[in-house]
Design brief:
Layout lengths: L1 E2 L4 E5 L10 E5 L8 H13 L5 H33 L1
Amino acid sequence: MIKGINHQIIEITDTDNIYYEKAYLVVRPEYKNTQEALLNKHARHFIAGMKAPSAIKRSTMFFYWFIRFSIFACIGAVVALFINSLL
């Protein structure tokens, strides 16, 4: 833990995230006397919940919905072909 003048800063160097190398979290002054292990545990939990930057999420969401739409369109075409062959 790095201590500043009025704040304590937690530096997380191993984020277990492919997008982020390091994270710095500033501890609120009222919690600066909290056990360091507890602060580190909550910091790691917070970092684990971080998601990809929004631009990456948008591009992957586009492909997700495109593939999903394509699958349902193919299923619809097969069902329509099956119904048409019965008539």
